[in-house]
Amino acid sequence: MILLSNAELNDIYGGGFSISLSLAIAALVTFAVGIIDGYVRPLRCR
């Protein structure tokens, strides 16, 4: 096993874009489900 120094750890890139992309996809899916739910099962305002 190789131990990395703090400088070497700071030089590692990756994962940030995929996390952002995952959050964006999850937000779009949630929004689409809300639109479909509102269309299929409209609720009356109280």
Q: What Rg, in angstroms, do the CA atoms define?
A: 21 Å
Fraction of helical residues = 55-70%
Report on the biggest sheet.
Answer: none
Class by alpha and beta content: mainly alpha
Instruction: Point out poorly predicted stretches.
Output: none
Shape: rod-shaped
- Range of strand content: under 5%
Number of strands: 0
Would you list the SSEs in sequence order as H and E? Answer: HH
* Multimeric state: single chain
Mean of the pLDDT scores?
88
Please count the helical segments: 2
Straight-line distance between termini: 63 Å
Write up what this structure looks like.
- This protein has helices spanning 6-10, 16-40.
- By secondary structure, it is an all-alpha fold.
- Helix content is 65%, strand content 0%.
- The chain contains 2 helices and no strands.
Give a quick summary of the entry:
This protein is an all-alpha fold.
Give the helices and strands, then pairings:
Elements: H1 6-10, H2 16-40
Task: Give descriptors for this structure.
46 residues; mainly alpha; 2 helices; 65% helix
